[in-house]
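Colleagues,

For the teaching module next term, I've prepared a clean inverse folding example: a structure given as tokens, and then the sequence designed for it. I'd like students to try predicting residues themselves before seeing the answer, so please don't circulate the second half yet.
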């Protein structure tokens, strides 16, 4: 179920003058489009959208009510002003009930790895994965506990539990998190190289 519900008006004009009029009225020009390519021009209340946007992620399904009809959709894009970040336009992508979709889901890791406490360095090379499922089964994010990760150990996508109705599209060999041994500091290596150079110079001088 959508956690954010927006009330919208159907829009008849599509020009820049009409868009400016809508913004002066405290609303945001927007469009709802889907895989068929057809688009519905609407406008939404600026305050309502800004308040709801705090709870909207890339995989959040919002409910847009337009003249008594309900649309489930993703927020695909928001255009903002460079100066103050004010929202100028919103693109919604309609999701169809009963039709599978592909989406990229954010990976959230938590925990303090054992390997880090032992002096290792944590690396997180992957931040999102692509999955396929019905809209109702789409997870907001994938959560991974890295507390037990030791030095020279890694967690791959294949180790991350998915919902029963969620199919992984990304390669399951990709690394989500790993802990490596800390490398010798660059300053220590530089000091050793300097000492070696000075020793070689001193030896050359003695021979002269």
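(Answer key — instructors only)
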């Amino acid at each position: 179920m959508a956690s954010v519900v927006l009330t919208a008006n159907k829009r008849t004009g599509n020009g820049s003058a009409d868009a400016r009029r809508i913004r002066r009225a405290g609303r945001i020009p927007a469009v709802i489009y889907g895989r068929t390519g057809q688009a519905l021009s609407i406008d939404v209340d600026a305050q309502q959208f800004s308040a709801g946007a705090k709870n909207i992620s890339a995989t959040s399904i919002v409910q847009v009510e337009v003249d008594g009809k309900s649309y489930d959709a993703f927020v695909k894009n928001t255009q903002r002003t460079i100066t103050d970040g004010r929202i100028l336009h919103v693109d919604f992508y309609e999701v169809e009930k009963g039709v599978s979709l592909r989406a990229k889901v954010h990976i959230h890791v938590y925990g303090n790895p054992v390997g880090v406490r032992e002096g290792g360095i944590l690396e997180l090379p992957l931040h999102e994965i692509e999955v396929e499922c019905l809209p109702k089964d789409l997870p907001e994010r994938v959560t991974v506990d890295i507390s037990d990760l030791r030095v020279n150990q890694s967690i791959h996508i294949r180790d991350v539990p998915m919902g029963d109705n969620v199919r992984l599209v990304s390669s399951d060999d990709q690394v989500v998190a790993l802990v490596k041994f800390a490398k010798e500091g660059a300053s220590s290596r530089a000091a050793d190289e300097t000492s070696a150079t000075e020793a070689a110079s001193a030896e050359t001088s003695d021979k002269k």
